[in-house]
Write a structure and sequence with these properties.
Blueprint lengths: L8 H4 L2 H28 L8 H14 L4 H15 L16 E6 L2 E10 L3 E8 L3 E4 L5 E9 L2 E4 L7 E3 L4 E4 L6 E4 L3 E9 L5 H12 L2 H20 L4
Antiparallel strand pairs: 1-2, 2-3, 3-10, 4-9, 5-8, 5-10, 6-7, 6-9
InterPro entries: ERG2_sigma1_rcpt-like (IPR006716)
Organism: Paxillus involutus ATCC 200175
Protein name: C-8 sterol isomerase
């Protein structure tokens, strides 16, 4: 008696099976898009920082410690820890102002100190005594760049004159927009972003893989960011 042959690959991949697979994929993608859209409408409930308050705080630091970045940073930390005493059940702050790492993104290079990092917000000090220039990136978060020392210039396609931001000014970059920017020698800023922060990380890390190959900096950036995000998640701060 002849043995029956096992079903061939062609019989397994019948048109009905293929259609079912694509329908399941389409349904999953649809649910994913709807979920993302819904989360985007409620993300503001997880915001803790207030942009006008941060702008006022940056301006106070500029007046209190002119041309003194270290004094400004301590002034900012002191006020933030008064407003949000640590440890807190609403937000976690990194008060170790000696924890700086290089940051290469969009062709620009500087150093940053991460004060806060969570899923929907981050607050950092960024700058360089040497000056730098690059692309802002195209992000899913609104970005508020508060100049503390020095100047930042910016430009977007179609503009025939540059934008100029001086100490005490804030350069607001709405999500979904991009510019070329230049930070002059000795420029430092307090940068606040609100939106979906993890989606900004590929831009912040890409230069490590395509240019610098600075593995120690990559390690410390990921370590500090993950540590701060986890600390905030554990207290319910998304």
């Amino acid at each position: 008696m002849a043995k029956s042959r096992p079903p061939t690959q062609a019989s397994k991949s019948s048109p009905a099976n293929c259609f079912r697979k694509w329908m399941l994929r389409a349904a999953f993608f649809g649910v994913f898009c709807v979920t993302c859209g819904w989360l985007d409408t409620i993300k503001q409930r997880w915001y803790v920082f207030d942009p006008p308050f941060l702008h006022e705080l940056a301006q106070e630091a500029v007046v209190a410690f002119p041309n003194n970045p270290e004094g400004m940073i301590q002034h900012i930390l002191t006020n933030l820890t008064i407003t949000h005493p640590q440890p807190s059940n609403t937000i976690s702050l990194n008060t170790n102002s000696a924890e700086w790492v290089f940051n290469n993104a969009g062709g620009a290079m500087g150093a940053m100190y991460i004060i806060h990092a969570s899923i929907t917000e981050y607050l950092i000090i960024f700058g360089t005594p040497l000056g730098t220039e690059g692309h802002t990136g195209l992000h899913t978060a609104d970005d508020y760049f508060h100049i503390l020392v020095g100047e930042q210039w910016a430009f977007k396609p179609g503009a025939l004159e540059m934008e100029r931001y001086k100490p005490g000014d804030v350069h607001f970059l709405p999500r979904g927009t991009a510019k070329q920017y230049k930070m002059h020698e000795g420029c430092f800023a307090m940068e606040y972003a609100r939106g979906w922060i993890p989606l900004m990380m590929p831009f912040g890390l890409a230069d490590t893989f395509t240019s610098t190959l600075d593995v120690p900096t990559l390690y410390h950036t990921v370590r500090i960011t993950a540590r701060e995000m986890i600390k905030n998640i554990l207290i319910g701060k998304i």
